[in-house]
Design brief:
Organism: Aristolochia fimbriata (White veined hardy Dutchman's pipe vine)
GO molecular function: ATP binding; histidine-tRNA ligase activity
Signal peptide: 1-19
Helix content: 25-40%
Region (Disordered): 47-85
InterPro entries: aa-tRNA-synth_II, aa-tRNA-synth_II/BPL/LPL, Anticodon-bd, Anticodon-bd_dom_sf, His-tRNA-ligase, HisRS-like_core, HisRS/HisZ
Number of strands: 16
Shape: elongated
Strand order of the largest sheet: 1-5-6-11-10-9-7-8
Bound molecules: 2-acetamido-2-deoxy-beta-D-glucopyranose
Length: 493
């Protein structure tokens, strides 16, 4: 106790140099109260513990050399709006991402990634999009404006421009990455999420969109969802473009008009109209727009715009492809879908839950001019983003979340402490064969071992005991059948 007090006292004596401390803690003679552990508990090692540690060759036990001044206690919660992923959450995330990656593989896309931190200029667009208004941007120590990426597509466009013509087209890339936003009004909404993106660069035809939607359908099916759980609303921004042309609305307003119209479901209609009027759109044009946006069937669209319109031709081709892919039951035309990103130019789509309880599950579309916005040469492009949050809510609602447990094949347990080395040898052998092995690292009771085995759903228990070991054997217990037998170490597999 005396030593502990002395040690803590030292740490709180600002005038005593820190150089005193390592000498104290490394000494076998003087027990440091455990690290002056966070709470500086007044516990010290008992003399017995100290001698045991000495005999096992450890000096100092848990006490590591103190290095820096004691800090004020930290907040153990992750920063506001962010998440930790303890094992059970990480298992779920990995499972979801494995599905993203597997579907991408089925469609022969290659994985890419980009820095989470990008130059802010990559996202400055004047369209009033939510995504850029909530940009998590700041100045770095070099005075550069940077931002945590709010989405992946601009980075992808940047990389495509950088690689230039050396890339064989079409480019089919996918990425799974964390995206950030900084909301001014935080109401329990998170500031980060992960997104799976698939993009095709270099294809003019809606065959590309059809392929992208097919990949999301494939994912949904893998996750156990059917067309009665989820669907896609599909439209084309060319529908809006046709209407705007009809009313001679300048093309440069197109992106902004789309972003305003996308807010129709979130803000009152008068607000939407006010914003459109502020852009200089006539009331007559607004009424024309609203009429077309209410359309829910392709024949009606064709009647409204005429069959010569690109929008009509694109959508008809897309729906006909969907039939041949076999997912026409999953998609429906809905002219009100425009999506909130200003850079979309053609077909847009969004995945939704049919009960209408959740936000969009995913969204995507064609963005043929994004590359030139960044000073590159235009290339036809389309892609989608699929977040990690809504899908998990949906799967939870539907009871479709898998029961994931740690994946351990074997537990290796030395019954006698002196067989620890032999147990590690057994563990190494099994690991070389590719088995996942949990080697028990300290003395435990068999009762604990069985409970532990159940918790981690191990399939075998390998007991290394003196009597068997003398005969070059170990006891192997099959944890599902409870059968056990002695197996020669050389025959263990
Ligand atoms: C346990 O026994 C069952 C039934 O014989 C067998 O199917 C299973 O593969 C065994 N498990 C291990 C890990 O050997």
């Amino acid at each position: 106790m005396k030593m502990a007090a002395a040690c803590c006292a030292l740490r709180f004596q600002p005038r005593l140099g820190l150089s005193f401390l390592p000498a104290l803690s490394l000494s076998n003679q003087i027990s440091v109260c455990r690290l002056c552990l966070p709470q500086c508990s007044q516990k010290i090692h008992s003399p017995a513990a100290t001698s045991q540690e000495k005999s096992s060759g450890r000096s100092g036990g848990l006490a590591s050399p103190p290095t820096i001044d004691r800090q004020t206690a930290i907040d153990v919660n992750p920063p506001r709006g962010t998440r930790d992923f303890p094992p059970e959450d990480m298992r779920l995330r990995n499972w979801l991402f494995q599905n993203f990656r597997e579907v991408s593989r089925l469609f022969a896309f290659e994985e890419v990634d980009f820095p989470i931190l990008e130059s802010e200029a990559l996202y400055t667009r004047k369209a009033g999009e939510e995504i850029t208004e909530q940009l998590y941007g700041f100045e770095d120590k070099g005075g550069r404006r940077v931002a945590l990426r709010p989405e992946l597509t601009p980075s992808l466009a940047r990389l495509v421009i950088q690689k230039g013509q050396s890339l064989p087209h079409p480019i089919k890339w996918f990425a799974v990455g964390q995206c950030w936003r900084y909301e001014r009004t935080t109401r329990g909404r998170r500031r980060e999420h992960y997104q799976w993106n698939m993009d095709i660069i270099g294809v003019f035809d809606v065959t590309a969109e059809a392929e992208l939607i097919s990949s999301v359908v494939t994912l949904f099916k893998r996750l156990g969802l059917t067309e009665s759980d989820v669907g896609f609303k599909v439209s084309s921004r060319k529908v809006l473009q046709a209407v705007l042309q009809r009313y001679s609305i300048p093309e440069e307003l197109f992106g902004e008009v789309c972003v305003i119209i996308d807010k129709m479901e979130k803000i009152p209609m008068e607000e939407v109209e006010k914003k459109l009027v502020a852009l200089g759109i006539s009331v007559e044009a607004i009424n024309g727009l609203l009429q077309v946006l209410a359309l829910k069937s392709l024949p009606d669209l064709e009647e409204a715009l005429g069959s010569a319109e690109d929008a009509v031709a694109d959508l008809k081709q897309l729906f006909s492809l969907a039939e041949q892919y076999g997912y026409s039951q999953w998609i429906q035309f809905d002219a009100s879908i425009v999506r909130g990103l200003s850079y979309y130019t053609g077909v847009v789509f969004e995945g939704f839950d049919r009960e209408g309880k959740l936000r969009a599950i995913c969204g995507g579309g064609r963005y043929d001019h994004l590359l030139s916005m960044f000073g590159g040469t235009d290339s036809p492009a389309c892609g989608f983003g699929f977040g990690d949050a809504v899908i998990v809510e949906l799967l939870k609602d539907k009871g479709l979340l898998p029961d994931l447990s740690p994946e351990v094949d074997d537990i290796v347990f030395p019954i006698d402490q002196q067989l620890q080395g032999s147990a590690s040898m057994i563990a190494s052998r099994l690991r070389e064969k590719g088995r996942s092995v949990d080697l028990v690292l300290e003395q435990k009771r068999l009762k604990w071992i069985f409970k532990h085995a159940e918790r981690i759903k191990a399939s075998r228990l390998i007991l290394v005991g003196e009597a068997e070991w003398q005969k070059g054997m170990v006891r192997v217990k099959n944890l599902s059948t409870r059968e056990e037998q002695d197996v020669k170490v050389d025959e263990l597999s």
